[in-house]
Amino acid sequence: MPFWKQFLVCLVVIAAGFAGWVYFVPGAGETLRKAGFSEVSKLAPGGAAPQAVASGEGQSRRRGGGANAAVLVATQAVARGVVNDRLSAIGTGDAIRSVVVMPQASGTIREILIKSGDRITKGQVLARLDSEEQIIARGQADVALKSAIEKSSLYHNIKSSVSRMDVFDAEIAEQGARLQLQAAELNLERRSIVAPIDGIVGIIPVNIGDNVSSTTPVATLDDRTEILVDYWVPERFANTITVGQPVEATSVARPGRVFSGAVEAIDNRIDAASRTMRVRARIDNASDELRAGMSFNVGMKFGGDQYPAVDPLSVQWDSQGAFVWQVVDGKSGKVRVSIVQRNPDFILVKADLKDGDAIVTEGLQRVREGGAVRVASEVASNSEPATQ
């Protein structure tokens, strides 16, 4: 194809594309008017007459358009937030007193007087060992004591006929017989296994006929009128927690229930590996709903540190760090902030801000230092028609 035909085809294609753009693209007429093609812009759909455009531009200027126009923004007031005001930790519960009962002597169990779950009192007999030998020994000691008493009494009556040494020996023999009887009675008493505390019996691990020694567990007793909960807290709370401070505990076994208590003891050192400190709380269990070994979620409240709270959308960044835009008397200004804590709904910051200060949250892209701004809520209130 000759060159002049190719050139003509290109011109036709360009002209057709331009015509399609002018006709089908919204805003093409406005673009042409700005470029000085006011006559061609009339061909675009919705094209307005120059007078109408000029009128619209005049209205836009009267409404505050142009380079010095106030920027429309949305603001939110600064609130007050608290950091480190609550502690939550996981702990393990234990009975206020817990004892593993073991016999004080070796022997065969002849009688078990309790069962699992019984509530027993201090001094109550739990089980008895065979005691035939101890009964015989006590009888022998009793006879020996009677003989010694009789001999001592006789020597006292006939002091004139016996020497003082014989009388003294008789008194010593009487005292020794008394001690032998006491020892025999103690050995017989130790054949009975008694409860050292008030509590509730656990599962009994022995049966009648078992041979036991002084290291054999016979029963476990738990006094669970109160529960001790040990938990670990970060070291930053070391100087904040005090003995007697209230705590609240919840347990997986009792969902929805909150149990009140107080700090019972605080450890005297920080664990170097975990940088935590051990704390023990006492929880009332008068209703006997809790058991030793349960896991607890322990919560404590503190005064905490207060900081200004701003919307997460309001925090901006530049080469010098974080800042927010504050609106004062219709003007915007930067306020430098240092982030303390991030939360889903707000950010706590260190800044020269007071409660109620207006901080820009929307329209941030067009805000400038010292620039004029219009708050969306104020614009909406001014545009509402007056009620008759």
Molecular structure report:
The chain folds into 4 domains: 3-59, no CATH class; 71-83 and 306-383, conserved putative lor/sdh protein from methanococcus maripaludis s2 fold; 88-94 and 220-305, Beta Barrel (Elongation Factor Tu (Ef-tu), domain 3), CATH 2.40.30; 104-212, no CATH class. The chain contains 7 helices and 22 strands. It has helices at 3-24, 28-35, 38-41, 50-62, 132-157, 164-189, 376-383; strands spanning 71-77, 79-83, 86-101, 107-112, 119-120, 125-129, 192-194, 199-201, 211-212, 219-234, 246-251, 254-266, 276-284, 295-301, 305-310, 316-318, 321-328, 331-336, 338-342, 347-350, 358-362, 373-375. Helix 5 (132-157) runs antiparallel to helix 6 (164-189). The longest helix is centred in the middle third of the chain and has 26 residues, at 132-157.
Rounded average pLDDT: 84
What is the rounded Rg? 47 Å
Largest sheet: 6 strands, mixed
Name the poorly predicted regions: 46-67, 383-388
Work out the helicity level: 25-40%
The H-and-E topology, N to C, reads as: HHHHEEEEEEHHEEEEEEEEEEEEEEEEH
Secondary structure tally: strands: 22
| Range of strand content | 35-45%
Identify the quaternary structure here.
Answer: single chain
